[in-house]
Amino acid sequence: xxxxxxxxxxxxxxxxxxxxxxxxxxxxxxxxxxxxxxxxxxxxxxxxxxxxxxxxxxxxxxxxxxxxxxxxxxxxxxxxxxxxxxxxxxxxxxxxxxxxxxxxxxxxxxxxxxxxxxxxxxxxxxxxxxxxxxxxxxxxxxxxxxxxxxxxxxxxxxxxxxxxxxxxxxxxxxxxxxxxxxxxxxxxxxxxxxxxxxxxxxxxxxxxxxxxxxxxxxxxxxxxxxxxxxxxxxxxxxxxxxxxxxxxxxxxxxxxxxxxxxxxxxxxxxxxxxxxxxxxxxxxxxxxxxxxxxxxxxxxxxxxxxxxxxxxxxxxxxxxxxxxxxxxxxxxxxxxxxxxxxxxxxxxxxxxxxxxxxxxxxxxxxxxxx
Length: 370
Prior knowledge:
Layout: E1 18-24, H1 32-51, E2 60-66, H2 71-84, E3 88-91, H3 95-108, E4 112-114, E5 130-132, H4 137-150, E6 155-160, H5 164-177, E7 183-188, H6 194-204, E8 208-212, H7 219-227, E9 236-238, H8 247-253, E10 262-264, H9 272-285, H10 291-310, H11 314-319, E11 326-328, E12 331-333, E13 335-336, E14 344-346, E15 352-357, E16 360-369
Parallel strand pairs: 1-2, 1-3, 3-4, 4-5, 5-14, 6-7, 6-8, 8-9
Antiparallel strand pairs: 10-15, 11-12, 13-14, 15-16
Helix pairs in contact: 1-9, 1-10, 2-3, 4-5, 6-7
């Protein structure tokens, strides 16, 4: 492990709060609803930690910074939080933003437990400073590809916006589908209006359309256009990145938003801790908590355990990732090195392909288990 370039990681002994920097997208163009759920989980766990006595009697304090889905803003926030003396970083939802934050945390020698971002190459080179709870994109999206093939889909269109994350997802799908006779047809959403997507689907004889685009737009407009096109009555729409998980999707689309399969990182049934946390999150959010809220809760739970066991020295925190064994809301969390993954990785959280039930859009159906 490389030595931090400054003594910022020194043990704090003044009796003040133990601070964790929290990176969260809270304003547009960030996915605000995901950020709100992530923050709710982080805050609930911090409250529970403090109710249980904090970190060796010192209160745990979150220092929250809004990344707004902007990598440069995230890097500036990491610099600021390092100067403030936080013991570690937590959070972030957007993969491209988390990648920028992880690179900066690695350069500064600041431990970062990433909650939700899935991009495999979270850092360019292997690092000891960064760990991640969310499953790597290659793991989850391969499971999604298996689901598509099992459901009989071999001509799959992807409506994609330009980003490293979407491009990586399309590549994973293509690599998984092609050897088994599947074809991925890319539709560039920089050049197509939602209504033009319908014509392209007919022309390419696609049986499935995957939404590799932002939400609410253009995802909502694409769904509405496809649902209203009688030529596409049999097509299946999917959203592997999880857009239909959130209540905003159901509010905007109603029944049109049902039967759109997506990846969800929750077990089929929550254990006692998960059930208790679900109840508390539902009260805090005034709606059903998403899997992202549980990711936030588990992040602070893990960091609190590490800080209690190893103190607040940053180098000791980073060195502790392989020794973590913490009961989270979705199972026991342990980190290891996975092939092709540059950070310490929980391998793996439960992964399911689910959708909203057309007969009851607030209910989720499990379609496929990873």
